[in-house]
Structure formats: C-alpha cells, structure tokens
Design goal:
The protein is α+β, with helices and mostly antiparallel strands. About 20% of the residues lie in helices and about 50% in strands.
C-alpha cells in the first residue's frame, strides 16, 4: 500500500506539471527581422505621389498551435525618425507633422483576433483589430493580413489606408503651402519575424 502511494504521488505531480506546461510548449515566439522587413508609407501631393520607408522597426508575434492556429500577441513599433524618403526637406516636414520630438515611435498593439482562415499549406488569411498609435493619438484599426508560417519564420503581408487627420495630423505642406499633401496615406508591409 505504501509503495502504491509512493508511486501515485510523483505521477500525479508529473501529470499536473505536464498539463500546466502544455500551453507553453505550443506557444512559439518570433521577433521582427528589421533587415529583412519592409514597411512603406505612400501618399499623394499636389505635385506628385510619394513613398517613405521605415528603416528601423521592431516587433513580435506569439503563435499558439495547440488545437488550431491562434495569435496570442502581435506588436509592431516603427522609429518615427527612421522614416526616410531620400528627400531631406520632405523628411523634415514629415517629422514636424508627426511631432517626433515628443512622439518617438509609431506602434501597433493587437487587441483582438477576428478570424484566422487557412488558405493553403502554412498560409492563412487573418483579420485582426488593434490599437495604432501615431503622433501620440491612438485609434482602433482593423487589419487584414496574409500570414505564412514555418518552423522558424512568420511572414505577414498587408496594407492599410487611413487619413492623417484621423490621428490629428495636419497633412504636411511645402514651399510656403504651394505644395500640399493628400490626407489619405497607405501603409504597405512585408514583415519577417524569426524564431
């Protein structure tokens, strides 16, 4: 009888430990690879269309594949003054509009996963909602993503259009107001995250 008790107690402890650690076994964390990722902001002006690229970004995604694919965490941060267009005057106007002296980063923080739908082997169509913060103003935004997963890499692709004035940003002007920027901008991203 004592022998049975001696065996059962460690077995129960082991079983409880396995149950508690199972969710952690299935959770996989991937960190953004800045050199492989690309994020471009595109817009219009009274003179010509324009693009500006983010040179510094970081972020993380945590996937859980216990029963089905779920996203536990998704964050993205762009250093505001790493947005570069190869035109110094335009960059200066951008930083002024974004008030980069006060607001160093543009961030996205996942709040809800609406849908993850498989679209082929290791490919998913993803609908999420999150908080996008630009120039210190946070707005809830809906994002549609194409996600590809492998054992050591996640790729997220998508685009999002919004108005600058939604974030209380005055569209930049140049040459004493003779060149005006359109209110709507589109962010296009191809984000690579590695384990």
């Amino acid at each position: 009888m004592t022998t049975t008790k001696n065996i059962v107690k460690p077995l129960l402890s082991l079983l409880i430990l396995l149950i508690l650690s199972t969710s952690q076994v299935y959770s996989q964390t991937y960190n953004l690879d800045n050199s492989a990722s690309k994020l471009t902001v595109s817009g219009t002006s009274s003179l010509h269309d324009w693009d500006i690229d983010a040179e510094q970004q970081k972020g993380q995604i945590v996937l859980n594949i216990a029963d089905k694919m779920t996203i536990e965490k998704l964050t993205l941060e762009v250093t505001a003054e790493s947005l570069k267009s190869d035109k110094g005057a335009m960059d200066k106007n951008t930083y002024k509009a974004l008030d980069t002296k006060k607001h160093k980063s543009i961030t996205f923080q996942l709040t809800e996963v609406k849908e993850i739908k498989a679209s082929g082997t290791d490919n998913y169509k993803v609908e999420v909602t999150g908080n996008l913060t630009i120039a210190g103003v946070t707005k809830k935004q809906h994002l549609s993503l194409d996600m590809h997963t492998s054992s050591n890499k996640v790729t997220l692709k998508g685009k999002k259009a919004f108005k600058m004035t939604d974030f209380e940003i005055d569209p930049p002007k140049a040459l004493f107001g003779t060149i005006t920027t359109g209110d709507q901008v589109t962010i296009t991203f191809n984000t690579i995250l590695n384990k």
